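Please check these two lines:
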Amino acid sequence: MKLIVFRLCFVYPLANEVCYETIGCFSDKPPWSGIPGRQLFGLPASPEKMNISFSLFTKETGNLSQRILYNEISSLQNSSFSPLRKTRFVIHGYTSTGKYGWVVELCLV
């Protein structure tokens, strides 16, 4: 079994909409923000500024993860990822790094 953990950080530019070629557009209106109880303000920074990466846990890597960069196919090709195996994604949220606590514990189950 392998798990991939998402790590997202947000920077808040002043704009009404922002678009990124690889992931699409975001507006400062619902469903992205403006919803009571959702603590998001502003718009997300570019994936390059956010330094998006995935932590790959497999039986081979045990409790050590391999870092997969969203925009570097070689990081995936050089990892122990196999499309033939079942893959699960753990999304920890934007306020956490996903490197400690419950996220890692869940990946080791």
